[in-house]
Specification:
Blueprint: H1 6-20, H2 22-25, H3 29-49, H4 52-74, H5 83-97, H6 99-102, H7 110-124, H8 141-154, H9 169-185, H10 190-214
Helix pairs in contact: 1-4, 3-4, 8-9
Organism: Microbacterium pygmaeum
Protein name: XTP/dITP diphosphohydrolase
Domain NTP pyrophosphohydrolase MazG-like: 29-102
């Protein structure tokens, strides 16, 4: 292994594990999905409430998932690719989407950068027939709602009611969508807002349990 290249060493470690670990040899892309979801969630926790050391570790765990998928794909009978192909494709995409960095375009504000990014992205996705193409239904519900509101806005669709009234479960869905729309209008992340409130609730529960134990 090339000790001067930690990423290459990680990829080669993954290859060795795939070759020699009986459990790993049986795993396919679909089997890895739950682990990918779990590791992604742990990265989010580390970003929002963890330490730099915890974030470094969780990013490593997430990178292992990427290396794992790439190693599985490298041995496929049809359309194989490896981690070098993944990295090469990513580099090419990022260069295309940053013409103000790598080409002659000018972007002096975040808004101008976004215009160039969206233009490059649209050019890449010309085969798509709907603004909804590429939106994953596996996103958490609040994050998906925030994403779909932005897509709906592009085609002139408004999902916001003027006076929400919760009398049925469907009404509750409308009210929740209204809340997400209000968050989006303010530039807030509805999913993160709920997670942070839930963390406060968890703390309250733990405090109440501690008080109960102390009161016995």
């Amino acid at each position: 292994m090339n000790e001067q290249d930690p990423l290459r060493q990680a990829a080669e470690t993954m290859r060795t594990v795939r070759d020699r670990c009986v459990w790993t040899q049986q795993i396919d892309h679909r089997d890895l999905v739950p682990y990918l979801v779990e590791e992604s969630a742990e990265v989010i926790d580390a970003v929002e409430v963890g330490t730099p050391a915890e974030l470094r570790e969780e990013l490593g765990d997430l990178l292992w998932q990427v290396l794992f998928h790439a190693e599985i794909a490298s041995r496929a009978q049809e359309d194989p690719f490896d981690i070098d192909d993944v990295a090469r494709g990513l580099t090419e995409k990022m260069v295309r989407r940053h013409p103000h960095v790598f080409a002659g375009e000018v972007a002096e504000t975040p808004e101008q950068v976004l215009v160039l990014w969206n233009a490059a992205k649209s050019a890449e996705k010309r085969e798509r027939t709907s603004v909804l193409d590429g939106v994953s239904s596996h996103m958490p519900s609040l994050a998906l709602a925030q994403k779909l509101l932005g897509k709906a806005e592009k085609v002139g669709v408004s999902a916001v009611r003027a006076e929400p009234v919760e009398e049925t479960e469907a009404d509750l869905g409308d009210a929740l969508l209204d809340l997400v729309a209000r968050a989006r209008a303010r530039g807030w992340d509805a999913e993160r807002a709920l997670r942070e409130r839930l963390r406060m609730l968890e703390t309250q529960v733990l405090d109440a349990e501690a008080d109960g134990v102390q009161g016995r």
